[in-house]
Amino acid sequence: MNVVPDTSAVVDGRISQRVDDGDFAGATVLIPEAVVSELESQANKGEESGWDGLSELQRLADLADAGDIDLDYVGVRPGPEEQGYAHRGEIDALIRELADEHDATFVTSDLVQSEVAKAKGLEVEYIAPKTEDVGRLSIEDFFDEQTMSVHLRSRVPPMAKRGEIGEMHYQRIRDDPSTDEQLKEYAQEIIQSAKQSHDGFIEIDEPGMTIVQFRDYRIAIAEPPFADAWEITAVRPIVKTSLDDYEHADELRGRLLERQRGVLISGAPGAGKSTFAQAVAEFLADNDFAVKTMEKPRDLQVGPEVTQYTELAGEMEKTADSLLMVRPDYTIYDEVRKTNDFEVFADMRLAGVGMVGVVHATRPIDALQRLIGRVELGMIPQIVDTVVYIEAGQIEKVYDVRTQVKVPAGMTEEDLARPVILVEEFETGTPEYEIYTFNRQVVTVPLEEGDEKETGVSRLARQEIEREIQSVSRGHVDVDLQGQNKAVVYVDENDISYVIGKGGGRIDDIENRLGIDIDVRTHDEKPSSVGTTATTPKGDVVTPEITSRHIIIPLDGHAGETVEVQADGEYLFTATVGRGGDIQVSRGSAIAEELEYAIDRERQITVVSA
């Protein structure tokens, strides 16, 4: 009896097993050189399948040495052209031709390959891939009821995150350090169990990094040279919730069922965002919505009625395109991190799909801030109308997001009306923030009560008055706001007449433009608490670059963040850092003139989070 296995049967270890069972005892096993080439290529890439296949070839060699089978290698190694078209079945075709040439039984664990071989008239033995019930993993011994994650690293004692949601502590759980040998054994057991079990699969298999989903555990295995040492990190959810477990459950249920929504679930790492997202997914599925997820890796613990998708061909855009054909009512996107993720989220939402995104944010408003600069400002309320902020496993804040054409809070002139994004506290309807364009910059203004702290609107108003007066004066200008409709400006004595103008005409024009009464005085009349009181600059010191068209403020690593730019600690303007990690202010604009004025006078330019 002649037997020709393909790569899938060799990788699965099924030929030596059939010899041991007696089915292939005394057979002549013919290994195609094309199979050896594929296994060698996979092993060189660090893929576990390649090493599994090479181990099977060694077992077959041992069986041949024992006289249980005859073993021979046949055919030729595929050339670069065949290898380049392996995904189109070129190498599979070479293996089938060898089975036909040697009048051999063709053995495969690939169903498609089996059907093609039968159609070609070959004698085929299809052996289904091995799956079996796998018991407890050794790594599970490190977990107890309050353990969320276990961190094993070569030459370091095992560590774990333990505690209640929002109160996790990273702690040592054993004094003896782990060894390379121990971690390799754990890794081999995890990978083999994922392959053999109905409850596991390999999510990512790249050189140096393997990510496995096994039952409730998401396990990342890193090895050199990708990592500087062997490391295994295993994570599992320690609590599963329903929507009823959260405050505002009734209001949120009604909101989600009313129509498809755009929801951002935000919070710090470990706050319980994914746990809440899972509760939302199961609530929607229980209420007759078709629900899917987009995850990389897939680790939401949802019921079987919710299909979990990952990247298609390495791209979430392709996953989104596929989902738009499926037309789910809601999609849970865990998690939205990069600009590309926000764009995919926005595209699906604008196509009419209800979207629930999980976003890292340390403040509720930061979830919306991360959209600024990534999508058009005016589209934000159409993309996201609800923000849920999770802290310590509970809903801390819910925002309603909508657009209204109005005069921003703190301004009075009707000509200043513009589209404003209102961010309101969900339960009370109290506005907490306004987001709008001010002097070509996107600003997020907190609507604070009381006079103890200067509000965002006050800063913007003071800044605008200062710009207007500075444009008609030669010296330094200070502004003291006396309320929403009145301000006192202090200028050099020589500038008084020029700022006021003939018959008060110039200051009248400025007052009409700004919608505020302005009293012009000299610096000598200024109280010591106004304007130039010494302050200690805070934040990151930056060095702006002045080009022919822009003033560029470099802020690497802060793309998408909203920041305040200050000169010697005094507020200049608020801006959102662009995708390239900088702020670009067009020269000739009022903001650029003020910034250039500060630079020329060698004032220290700093940037702080808004």
Automatic annotation (TrEMBL):
Top-level taxon in the UniProt lineage: Archaea
Family: In the N-terminal section; belongs to the PINc/VapC protein family.
Limits of the PIN domain: 1-115
Alphabetized InterPro entries for the sequence: AAA+_ATPase, KH_sf_prok-type, Nucleic_acid_metab_PIN/TRAM, P-loop_NTPase, PIN-like_dom_sf, PIN_dom, T2SS/T4SS_dom
A GO MF label: RNA binding
NCBIfam families in UniProt: PRK13764.1
Stated name of the protein: ATPase
Organism from which the protein derives: Haladaptatus paucihalophilus DX253
Limits of the AAA+ ATPase domain: 259-557
Pfam families linked to this entry: PIN, T2SSE
Keywords: RNA-binding
